[in-house]
Queue: 3 jobs
Job 1
Amino acid sequence: MIARTVGAAARRLLKEAQTAVLVGHTSRGAFLALDSGEPVFLSLEGYRGPLTVNVAGPAQPLRGLPVQAPARLHAQEIIFEQHGISIQTAGAETWLAPPRPENPLSQRVRRVFGEEVLQQAVQHGEAEGMLAAVATLLGLEAAVERRPLPTSLLAVRDYLRQRQLERAAAAIQPLLGYGRGLTPAGDDLALGLLLALGRWGDVLAPDLEVQALERLVLPAAAWRTTALSTSLIACAAQGQADERLLAALDGLLCGGVTAERLVAGVSKWGNTSGLQALAGMLLVVVP
């Protein structure tokens, strides 16, 4: 098998590691846990991301690998010796998030469009979870039945606006690990929030030290949630994420896409993870 694209973070991790173990399958690929404890995603799709290795070739060999199948990493190759499968990464393109677009929307237009996107997202089928909480927070009772607002979510917004980073990080902590799955809903929201600040912080909050906030959040993530979530959040704070999340974020800031297309695109990331990450973006993108 041949890797067409390797995310920059995945490239670095694979170069530094010597062994790995396949720890799980999804309908779209499989996860490796490296000997460093960090994850890499072997994807059968074309969507690129910082921790993603986009694999070309028949899907069955990868899907047929059992959980706990060991791999050896050598000379830009992922080798499952016991199963006669290897993935060549030497000729793969290294992927980084593209430059962001120019001419962001005004705050007034951004709020109107953000509210439209949020309403569309709720109608898309995510009437619960973080989107519902953010809808309540932004006063969109018409979009979703009013629900109790998580105290920590309200505190996150207020402390960020006040530039009280230690308190904001403390308010984010209860969200980390909240929910089920490889990337729980609270993690997805934190990812979306930090991605928005990491990529557009000079527009959204010019005087906020995003890297200082990252240094406060990541240690808590490391012991509260999964290794996958922690790695994705770390990438997000650097402005790096799956291209579906980047497209949604840039669309929120600059327009050029309908609310329907934006929501449809971001919803393709995971089962509900893309929509939960969208909630985190909206929390800081909508003034």
Note: The CA atoms of residues 31 and 198 lie 25 Å apart.
Job 2
Amino acid sequence: MAEETPRPHRPARFADLTDLIDAAGGAPGTSRAEIASATAAVLVEAGRSPGDRARFVDLADRVGLDTLAALWRDADPVSLPGALWALYLLRQWCRADSEEVHRLWRAGEPLAPAEAVVAGVGEYADVEAVRRAADAVLSGVYQGDLAVALERAASFFRVVATGRRAVGPAAMFAPDGVDLAERNERVAAALCAAARRWRDGTLR
């Protein structure tokens, strides 16, 4: 999946999880893939209704990232729940490790200027600008063109991947040897594929 940021060490809030499933019309016998797809669709539809969309942007803060992980983490990356999981994980990463994200962004931005423009972070971005960009991407899911939001996130991941390679092995590889730059690029490719499916009406 996306960058493996540390998730809060707390159990998923089962009441919140069942509420989401109930809202999606799920039942205990429903498959995990069906539940993931249904809950993602419910959130996008609800978030696009008039009202306080900000509460959907900070959904992980309110229900716990573990709740969303239980619903979406194992979803196909090129699916609506898989794409939403990547976006919420990106936001969490930008908030929990903002200094590191900013360092990678600044290293990658001059080497991937076209991607940086699409991501919409802005030139000479500081730490707070990087945080705001992640929030803006999620806002776009609920009050703009979802495909554009996915493409912005994909470009963000590509700039970060470029930054990892510019910084060197210490930023490219996790302690277990996983190539984090390659992982970021895989997430970007999945998000772009999801954006194409959203535009042709086949993203589920």
Note: The chain is about 70% helix and 0% strand.
Job 3
Amino acid sequence: MNQQQNDTNALPPKTCTIERLVTVPKDVEKVLNGLKTATRRNGRYADIGEVMTLEGQDFVVEKVYSQSLGELTDEHARQEGFANVEEYKQSILSMHSGMPWLPQMRVWVHEFRRA
């Protein structure tokens, strides 16, 4: 069960800025094409209601919550623009050399939609 937070006041302080939320060119393209509607980060990069602008298009953050890697489903992977969890996992591990994939490791989920 994920700890979904819809009250921004209950969230810890951001650890980065929304401008850094989606930066990988392939991911930016997926967002612009509607194939990616969420991103997972090891810190909190956005508040609910905050706007991310990619190539002049605005996307509103709708949900921000903590989730463990062990909770990921194929549906979550599809939100990230991948076919399934294994494809998503391999993509993440290829970007973060030496990173272990631990089921108990927690990440921050940022779900967004086109404004």
Note: The domain at 3-114 is CATH 3.10.400.10 (Sulfate adenylyltransferase).
